[in-house]
Amino acid sequence: MATVFETAPFATPFSPSISSKQTFLLPLRCHSNSRSLSVSQPQQPDPDPKHRRRVVRLAWEKLLRWSRFWSSKAKTDVLERTNKVVVLGGGSFGTAMAAHVANRKAQLEVQMLVRDPQVCFSINERHCNRKYFPDHRLPENVVATTDAKSALLGADYCLHAVPVQFSSSFLESVADYVDPGLPFISLSKGLELNTLRMMAQIIPQALRNPRQPFVALSGPSFALELMNKLPTAMVVASKDKKLANRVQQLLASSHLRISTSSDVTGVEIAGALKNVLAIAAGIVEGMNLGNNSMAALVSQGCSEIRWLATKMGAKPTTITGLSGTGDIMLTCFVNLSRNRTVGVRLGSGEKLEDILNSMNQVAEGVSTAGAVIALAQKYKVKMPVLTAVARIIDNELTPQKAVFELMSLPQVEEV
């Protein structure tokens, strides 16, 4: 019995170096009782642009139907059952999240626990945070207090917006008023300088409750744009999948898209170290080193964050997602970033002390940078860019010297 093979075409309309008439003798399909070789001709693209547009439109409509299907299945009873949310901290992002949650349901009580009596007065009497958002009116159901006990009493969820370096002492002072089942949604990004702890460790330890429900909220999000209801996407991360889903339902809206993750370590470490990288990016901008060096520095910094995060048990996909690459791009390249601003001023020749004294908000990257060297040593990871930032902040290097040393490093194979 004679057997010949029909070969699949290697040529495509996008492979000009290979003729579509060539015959390749790689057997893919076997035909019996045939005495000649035949080659399948490649399928030509549809020349009709109207047909192509119709295919794209149908695919898009299918995607929208799929989205509406899952939206219709999403539960809304979490928001319906929630009566009170407390926000710890009266900073810019805490205020923006308080306004966002309050807008989700008019009957929802949103209490902000603030330290500054003047901020408390402006929120209650003028319905604005005069320190951070004097031109934005807060919803009527946002109220402020300086009394921790009344703020936490009866709360269904807690949004923690206290800077990382002050979180432990603050939480210890209010621990007696915290219900052991109250879910904490951490908005704070950074590492505790002396202990290298993340918020997932700080909160339960400070509250003396290892089972305190915890969720980390992170992603590319400036408070001002959230206040202006511009489209934003963020991630909630928790080891408790059901809790992450509940927080997703509580926060998700028409202008805030919320994804869920179980990789708490990846979300937190990326959120912390991107602030240090933003200082480096700002230094490049302040020194006018150009776009080439900016791209090289940020990409190297992203690799360093990924190396460390994966050594700490994080998933690489988390570092390339919203809470990783997304947040890094926003913080490194946009002028609204506090950490980038610190870097720009350092690169322009200002002293760190003068920069910090002139700011009314905390740049977490300054404190977190001090933890980078310790983490790099602990996990045996080389992190030249982020380590250079720490040394600049500690006055061990000038920005100019740091650039010279980084450019003098041995040429290595990219990993």
TrEMBL record:
One of its GO terms (molecular function) is NAD binding. Belongs to the NAD-dependent glycerol-3-phosphate dehydrogenase family. It catalyses: sn-glycerol 3-phosphate + NAD(+) = dihydroxyacetone phosphate + NADH + H(+). Substrate binds at residues 189, 338-339. The lineage of its organism: Eukaryota, Viridiplantae, Streptophyta, Embryophyta, Tracheophyta. Pathway: Membrane lipid metabolism; glycerophospholipid metabolism; Lipid metabolism; Phospholipid metabolism. This is Glycerol-3-phosphate dehydrogenase [NAD(+)]. One of its GO terms (biological process) is phospholipid biosynthetic process. The keyword Repeat does not apply. It comes from Lupinus luteus.
